[in-house]
Amino acid sequence: MTKKITKIMLLSASIAYFGLGEATGQSNLKSIGTPINTREFREHAFSISGDGKTFIFVQDRPDGTKVFLSTRVDKNSPWQIPQLIRTISDKVQKGKIIGTSLTYDGSELYFDAIFPSGFGDRDIFYAKRIGAEWGEPINVGEPLNTALFEGSPSISQDGKMLFFIREKFEKYKGTEPCYTIWVANKTDEGSWTNFEKMGEPVNSECEKAVTLMPDSRTLIFSSIRGGGAGGFDLYQTELQEDGSWTFPRDLDFLNTPNHEDYSAITGNSEEIFVEIKGDIYSAPLPNKFRGARQVPVNVMIIDAMTKKPIDASVFVAMNSRNSASFNAKNGVSLMQLKAGNNYTLACEAPGYLPANQVQVSLENVTGSETINNTIEMMPKNIAYTIKVLGADNNTINNAKIRIFDLSNNQIVPIDLNNNARVVFGNLYGLTVSSGNADFTGNWIPETNDAADKFIKTIKLVTKTVATNTSTPVISNVKVDKSENPYVNAPEVDMTKPTETFKLKSDPNITFETKKIYTLNDVYFDRNSVIVKSEYYIDINRLIELMTLNPKLNVQLSGYSDSFGDVAINQKISLRRARSCADYLKRAGIEPNRLLVKGLGEREIVLDSKGKEDTSKSRRVRFIVY
């Protein structure tokens, strides 16, 4: 009897088992077809990318196990002729690959194998995709891999959590091996830690395969347990807010008296793939098994100057609570976010300002649309042209210009065309002289200088007092509207009654009017006004408060430590408060609701020994009213 006839008989038997009158998923099973399925070989160990366009599978041949990749234009298009992943296939010398897991963006493939570089039995490996090519397999290493059996990996969509099976023991009628399901977390350095053997009700009697769904909190696994249809059946469990997992429910639309073990789910959770007697089939996933509804969100990260894609990290905050982080390879980050919520996306990349963000609302999303966003990141280090004007507003080409980086007291090089590279947000001292005219002052480059094509214009005035140009002399600096545009909000009225407001995202967090709050953890490097991305959570709480209560105003006050020039510290404290106000403005808070002040060294913070805690002195505090 041929393989094809066997499959037809099996499918017919499955339909009869569930009853012809029911529109079950088993009766809706459809072969993935050629060119993936073949008559001659077994196709199994499959996984699919988040966008559903890349399919990885394993094919058992007489000359060994082979790993293939097939692509399609969209879910309604046919799969293309599979391409052999030779870097992995050529390494398989013993046993078979039984499980694969493609990362959501399709850039990495996790799989199990028995290689000479292993630690004993079967181990978990991964390979990175660079363009159209795959790199050499890399062992994920100890302590995840041991002398025991580790297999069936399933990676979360952010690449930070890995589910797998471990151990092997003969338990089911002495013919089918049983395993236990484990989970590990990835550190920022790339190693795996916090290994945990999942307890009941997941690990019960005899488990085998595991698949993490795109929402990263719903698990499908294969198990033999009481009440099943027979053999290995597929079950689903969901992670709860308290860290527990729900009692597994069987995927009744798929389970039969035969074995059902490995599965794969599309990124939109609408389709499931299973193996039947050596071929791969798919079926619509019923709504009750799709977990929390997810919306595809694609982010393109580009250089604001060159418009070219850059590698970056994308931080996702849901209201005031941090949700996840994703990597953007070559500028592209693909993710799934839960429908019905609002999110803030912020980016960080080496050499770029971190405060870029975009608001994504999924509250009223309908259908299966994909949300696309492009985020431009401004490089920190940028070339400025220093333009010098005389009293008559004519350009002076031979002026003597010196720029001092006050963060390290170094002189900034200037070329023959008066061009210099400076860092956004840093504080610089400027001295310019020509004949009997000069200028001495300070300067903080900022992103809105792009409108002026990054030209810093200096107008000289008649020299009245001789200055020593070896170091910048910075006296009290006037603060005009261009330096502080947030002056239109009314002052705090301390005579009004106190009101209390709660956050919708977390009712346990409350704010009182007229009470001074410090933006927790929003501290600044010395001589810096840049708000770091790890401080977004507390600022996002303030954004939520202001958004929910449109009649509220906020006063933001910046502070400095006591080191350095008093006038410089006063100005830089103002810029720190303004950086936070700019963040609120980009989030949609009207500027006339924001009042910004720079208080300099007025309230330094002392430690337990009475000495100044300089890092905590460099902060921003606020009052809502």
TrEMBL record:
Keywords, A to Z?
Cell outer membrane, Lipoprotein, Membrane
User: Where does the UniProt annotation locate this protein?
Assistant: Cell outer membrane
Q: Which organism is it from?
A: Emticicia aquatica
A Pfam short name: PD40
> This protein is called what?
Peptidoglycan-associated lipoprotein
Q: Specify the OmpA-like domain's residue ranges.
A: 512-625
- Keyword set includes Membrane: yes
Query: Could you tell me the gene encoding this protein?
Result: pal_4
InterPro entries recorded = Bact_OuterMem_StrucFunc (IPR050330), OMP_bac (IPR006664), OmpA-like (IPR006665), OmpA-like_sf (IPR036737), WD40 (IPR011659)
Its principal location? membrane
